[in-house]
Specification:
The longest helix has about 35 residues. Helix content is about 25%, strand content about 40%. Helix 2 runs antiparallel to helix 3. The protein is built from 4 helices and 20 strands. It is an alpha+beta fold and about 350 residues long. Strands 1, 2, 15, 16, 17, 18, 19 and 20 form an 8-stranded antiparallel beta sheet that branches. A 6-stranded antiparallel β-barrel has the order 3-10-13-12-11-14. Strands 7-6-4-9 form a 4-stranded antiparallel beta sheet, with no helix packed on it. The N terminus and C terminus are likely disordered. Among the domains are: about 70 residues, conserved putative lor/sdh protein from methanococcus maripaludis s2 fold, CATH 2.40.420.20; about 80 residues, Elongation Factor Tu (Ef-tu), domain 3 (Beta Barrel); about 70 residues, Helix Hairpins, CATH 1.10.287.
Amino acid sequence: MIRLRSSLPLCALAFAACQPKSPAAPLPAANVAPTRTVLVVHDTTIGTALEASGTAAPVREATLGTRLMGSVTEVLVHEGQRVRQGDVLARIDARDVNAKGMQAAAGLAQAEAMYENARIQTSRLRALFADSAAPKAQLDDAEAGLARAEAGVHAARGAAAEVDAVRSYAEIRAPFDGVIVKRYVDPGAFVAPGAPMIGIEDASRIRISVTVAPSDARGIVSGTRLVARIEAQPARAIVEGVVPAAGNALYTINALIDNASGHFLAGGSGTLLLPRPSRSGILLPVAGLVREGDLTGVYVRGANGIAALRWLQVARADGDRVEVLSGLRAGETVELTSPVAREK
C-alpha cells in the first residue's frame, strides 16, 4: 500500500521564502559600562587665596540738602535719572532772599556813589593844597572821608556777595556726574537747613572694603592687583590702601574697580581674593567624580587591579578642578568616569 505524504509543510516553506523579508525587530539595548580614564594621583602645588567679603560701594555718593528754610517749588529729576555736574535738580522758594538781594544791590550802589563823590572832593583838595590854596586839616578830612567811603564800598560788596551765596542755596545742583538714587521731597514740601532732598551716586568706580587679620593683610600694599567678585561676577581690583581698623587688631583693605561700563551694580556684596602661600595637595577633575546626594567619590584601583568606589572629602570646586581634603593619597590609581557616561 502506498501512503501519500502531505506536501503542505513544503508548500508553506516555499511560500514563506517567496514573501518579502520584514525588518528585524530591534534587540533590547544592552547596558553599556561607562568609559573610565585611568589616572595616577600626584601632589600638585596649589595657590590658595582668602575670600574676604565686604561691601561694594560707589566711590562718590552724596545726599544733597540746603541751608535755606522754605518750600520746594520744583523737583526736576526722578530716581534712576542720569545727570551731569552742575545740572539743576530742585529749587526752593527764595523770594525773601531775592528781596534782600535787591536791598544789597541798592546799598552797594549808594556806597559806590559816596565813594566817587569823596574821591572827586579829595582830588580837588589835593590840587588846592599843592597851590597852598587849602589848609592841611581840610585835606586830611577829605582823605579820611575817602577812606570811609572805600570801606563802605567793600562792606556793601561783601553784603551783596553773601546774599548771592545764600541765593545759590535755593537751587540744588549736581556736584558730579551720576545717577539719582533717592528723591526725598516733592514740590510743596517744606524743608529746613540740612534736611536731605536728593541722593546721587557715581558708580563709574566701585570701592570694595574688607576687614581682615594683620597676617592676611601682610604683603598687600597700595597698587597691588587682586581678583575680586561683585555679586559672584568676576572683576579686577587695584588696592587703594591698607589701614588699621579702628578699635581692634584688624586691618581694612580698600580696593577700586573700574566700572565705567556700568556692568556692576553698586551696593551689593563684594569679595576680594587675598593671596596666601602656596601648598601641596591633590586636585581631581570635577567631571570625573561620582556624586550621590551630598557624597562625592571616585573609583580607586586596589592591588588586585579591581576598582572600588571610595568616598572623599573635597573642598569647594574652583573651576573644573576640586581639591581632595581626605580619602586619597598620592601614588594611588583612580578611574575617572567619562563626562558622557558618568557612573550612576
